[in-house]
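Collaborator request, handled under Task 6.
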Amino acid sequence: MTYRSGKTFTHEVGLSAAFRQWRAESHCRFLHGYALSFTFTFQATDLDQHGWVVDFGGLKLLRRWLEDTFDHKTVIASDDPELGWFEQADRVGLLDLVILDDGVGCERFAKHGADLATRFLYETDLNDRVRLVSCRVAEHGGNFAEWVVDP
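C-alpha cells returned to the collaborator:
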C-alpha cells in the first residue's frame, strides 16, 4: 500500500519573487514578479508513529529555505547577461539578489523546490521512509509548472 500527502505553501505565505526570462522574446524578458505557491507531494509505504507520511508542522525548515530563496528576492539566472547590473543593485541595497545556476521560471523553481525538499528529507532522516513525488509551483491561478520524480 502507498500513502501520499501534500503540503502547500500558498500565495498568501508571501514568497514574492521578481525575476526575468532573459532569453524570452515576449514581455517575460522584463523584470516581473509573483507571490509563488509551492505544493509538495510526499509518499511512503509505511506511516510514522502518528499515522502520518510527514508531519506538516515539522516542515518549518523547508519553509525557511523557500523564504531564503523567494521571499522578497530578485532571482536571476547565473548566465543572465545583465548579472553584473543586478549584482550592483544588490550591493547598493536596491534588491535582495539570489542567483540560480539552473535558471529561472516556474519549471526551474519547481526543480529548485524539489531539490530543497529532497535535502529536507535527508537532513531530517525521513529519506529512509519518505520520498518526494512532485513539486508544483504556481505563479497564480492560471500558470503552474511541476517537477515529477520519474517512476
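The cover message to the collaborator said: "Residues 106-123 form the longest helix (18 residues). The chain has one domain: 3-148. Please let us know whether this matches your experimental observations."
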